[in-house]
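Posted in: Structural Biology > Protein-Ligand Complexes

Title: Requesting predicted complex, flavin mononucleotide in pocket

I'd be grateful if someone could produce the C-alpha cells for the following input. Sequence and ligand are given below.
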Amino acid sequence: MNILLGITGGIAAYKSAELIRLMKKEGFQVKVVMTANATRFITPLTMEVLSENKVYIDLFSEDERGYRISHISLARWADMVVIAPATANIVSKLAHGVADDLLSTTLLAFQGSVILAPAMNKVMYNNPIFRDNIHYLMKKGYHFIETGKGSLACGEYGEGRMAEPPQIVGFVKELISKSNDLKGKKILITAGATREPIDQVRFISNYSSGKMGFALAEVAQKRGAEVILISGPTFLEDIEGINTVRVETAAKMREQVFTYFKEADVFISAAAVSDFRPARQFEGKIKKEEQNTIHLELKKNVDILKEAGEKKDKQILIGFAAEVKSLKENALSKLESKNLDYIIANDITREDSGFGTDTNKVIIIERNGNTIDLPLMSKYEVAKYIFDLIKSHFERQSKGRIV
Ligand SMILES: Cc1cc2nc3c(=O)[nH]c(=O)nc-3n(C[C@H](O)[C@H](O)[C@H](O)COP(=O)(O)O)c2cc1C
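-- Reply #1 --
Done. Output follows.
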C-alpha cells in the first residue's frame, strides 16, 4: 500500500513525524509532500529519514528518477493520499480546484481515496466558509477525520485539534478494509418525502429532505454495493454511478420499490412516505373565489415497508421511525409489526436531528431487542454505522447463525 502523506502549515505538523512512524510500522510505503509553509513548522529532513524516501516540496523539481512532472508521478504512485495536518487553506484550495503548488496540484491529479485530518483554531474550524468547503468535499467523496476537542496551540480550548496519529492510521486501515466489503450486494434505498396531490398545483408532504437516504446510498456505493435509490422530490442532486429513480407519490414509490425488491439483498426505507393522501384529486386548480372552506377527505396510503416485511425472503429490512415521543417503545412496535431486522429511531423534536439537518441522533434497535444509542453524528457517519451492522449481519448469515 503506497500512501502519499501531505503535510501543510500548522502546528500539528509535529505530529506527522509520529504518523509516518506508525504508517511504516503497518507496512505502508510512505512518500511525503510538504507545502512550503509546512517546512517552517517541521524540517523535511525529519520526514525524509522517517519515511525513508525523498521529501517533495517544489512543483518544478524532479522526482527520484529524474522525472520532471512530479505531481503526476506521485499521483500515479499513491494508492491513497492522507493530508495531516490539513490547513483551512488546503481544504479551501481543494474545494475550489486551486493547483498552485505541488501538493494541491497532485491532489487534482489523484483519483483514489483522500483522507484529510484538519487542524486549526476553533473559530477557523467553525467558520461557515470552512464548513461549506468540508461539506462540499465530503459530497465529492473526500474523507475527513473529525477533530477532537482540547487545548489548542493558540491557547484556546475547543474543537480544531487534529486527530491523534493512531486514530488517523486506524481510519486509513478501516478505509482499506471497507473499500469493497459490500461488493456483490444489491441495496435498495428510499429517500425523501412523497407528494400527494390535492389538485394540480397543491400537495400534502412533509419536511423530509432526503439527506439520510442519499448518505446511505453514497456510503453503500463507496463500499462496492450496487445501489438503487428511489427518491421523492428533493433538492439533492443524483450521485454519480447510483441508479436514482425519482418519484412523486407514495403509490409510485411503492411501484418502483417492488420492481427492484426481489433482487435486493437489503432494503432500507429512509423515505418519509406520506401516510395519507387526498381521497380524490381535484381537476385543475381549486379557486379560492369559489369557496371559503374545503373539506379534504384523506385515505390511508399503502404501507410500503409493511408490504416488504410480508414479501421478504432473504432481504435484510431496515426502517426509520421518526418519533416525537416514546421513541424506543414506538420504534420497537414498528419493528415487530413490520417484520423488520433493524429500526433506526430518530428524535425529530431536536433541532439538530431528523428532517432537513445534516446530523442525526438515532437509536438503532435490532430484532433481538438490542439497542444501540448513538451520539449525535453526521448523517454520513450514521450511514457508515448502519452498513457496519449490515456487514456483520451478512457475515453471521453466511456462517449460518441467522436463518
Ligand atoms: C504559528 C502558526 C500556526 C498556524 N497554525 C495553523 C493551523 O493549525 N491550521 C491552519 O489552518 N492554519 C494555521 N496557520 C496558518 C497557515 O500556516 C496559513 O494559512 C498558510 O497559508 C497555510 O499554508 P499551506 O496550507 O500551504 O501549508 C498557522 C500559522 C502560523 C503562523
